[in-house]
Amino acid sequence: MNHRNEIEAARAMLTKVLQHAREHDAAKVNHLHIAIGEIAELDQDLILAHWRDLSKGTLAESAQLHFRAIAADAQCMACFKKYHPEGGEIRCPYCGSYGAKILSGEEFYIESIETEIK
User: Fold this and answer.
1) Domain span at residue 42?
2) What is the pTM of this model?
3) Angle, vertex CA 42, rays to CA 41 and CA 47, nearest 5
């Protein structure tokens, strides 16, 4: 299995977190709150494992990561009804169409960073 997405996600988070820590004269990063969409195709356990490897020796090494799931929502482009795509199934449960616009669930971002100031 290719974990490239999770490695890149962890690397991007670490870059952003360390930049934030420098800008706020932090002694260390204590907590990191992360939002991840239900269909973002990212494994939070793998992100955490890569985070632990990448953050060794940095101000963020002992940070606790907290993940919040964002539910997936879609809108059918045929009947325009909104629905929750179950198990990654994009097919509209109302009319059977496969054409849908994803409204939420693909997100991945840092919600907050808690640091200890020097």
Assistant:
1) 4-71+105-117
2) 0.85
3) 170
